[in-house]
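Z., the sequence and structure:
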Amino acid sequence: MKRILFLLFLSVLSFEIGYSQNVLQTYVEEGINNNLNVGQLTANYEKALWGLKEAKRLYAPSVDFVASYEHLFRKPYDLDREISNPTLSGLLDFINTLDNSYIQDGKLYYPARNNYLAGIQLTQTIYNRELAYNSQMKEAAGRSAQAQLEDFKTELEAEIQSAYYTYLQAHFVKESISQSLVLTKKNLQGVENLIAQQKVTKEVLYKARTNVSNREAQLRNAENKETKARNYFNFLLNRPLDSDIEIDVAYIYEQSARYELGQGFTSNPDNEYRLSYIWGMMDYTTAQHNMIRANALPKILFGAFAGYRGASLDFEQSRKYIGQIQVSLKWNLFNSGINKAKSRQAAFQFDGLRLQYQQQENQLALSEMNALNDVTSELKNYSPVRDNYNNAKVYYNAVEQKFQQGMATILELTDAEEQLLQSDMNNYTWYY
């Protein structure tokens, strides 16, 4: 499914865009490197890679050193009365040479009391389809773990960028209110001068003082929002919450900048956010389904053994050294329908993942289209926001002059001042 990639061309003539990208990218890298969840997901990915290596090494032969000792508690056969028989005597001599029996004090021990075994054993799989599908499962699990890690990094990067812009917005809104407070105090001084000149009455003074108190309250609230925005940004970077945040000059709002939506659109087929993980799980389930079905196929193993076996430890006797090869076949012909039940479970799991994949595709397409519409609408709103500020500034200057001349009331001055502050804050809210 093709995705929409929309480009924003921000023409900011006086800014160093490259510098801004370096500053913000540095914060993003710091946040990713310090994030505990990234470390955990990275460990899961590394674990999946080692799981794949383990699955592949199941094809390789295994070589083991084996050693065992057995002692049998069993009453021997009494041969005292028949030992003079020449035929029986020769037979007993032969039996005494065998590894699994021996004669002592006229008694026959069969099997032998002591059995020693030591040697090297080799085992090699010749045919086992379950191993192949197990390897595919591990490979799919590795891709899913990697996709999960990359998805989280994408989300974290977006969250860090958003938190950075939120902090800048809170900071400059606070600065705007702070400047407005300076202006309000200046107007209070002007009112006091007008009262001294008996050009206005005292009730105007109370209104001007109220304006100062209100603006101070607004400033405290703005400072609190800036502090919380700073704390959250530092929290994402996993560093002390009161750490200073560098304000990038390239992201300072300027009235002279132009913002336009690029006219070109291009498809982005590589946008697999949250899709690669589901696809990997679908591959995992498919391999799991095949491995369950492969349980009904035969398995062929080759084995070899070379070592020492005997009823006593006598390394000078060559007949006690043995070599053995073995080819074994195992074929599960009946398992009471267990494989069928497991296979159906895997099939239903695959169907659920397929529906989840389609739903995620639709959700991404919707989110991208909504994001494009949001940006388009906001850019169209820029002219009204900018014009509102320019008009509010002109209006305030005119009302302020009239007030000084006694041609405007304190209520008109307060309203003009409030409009100027609100339009200035709207600029920063729109921009960030």
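The radius of gyration is 42 Å. The first helix runs from residue 17 to 34.

Let me know what you think.
H.
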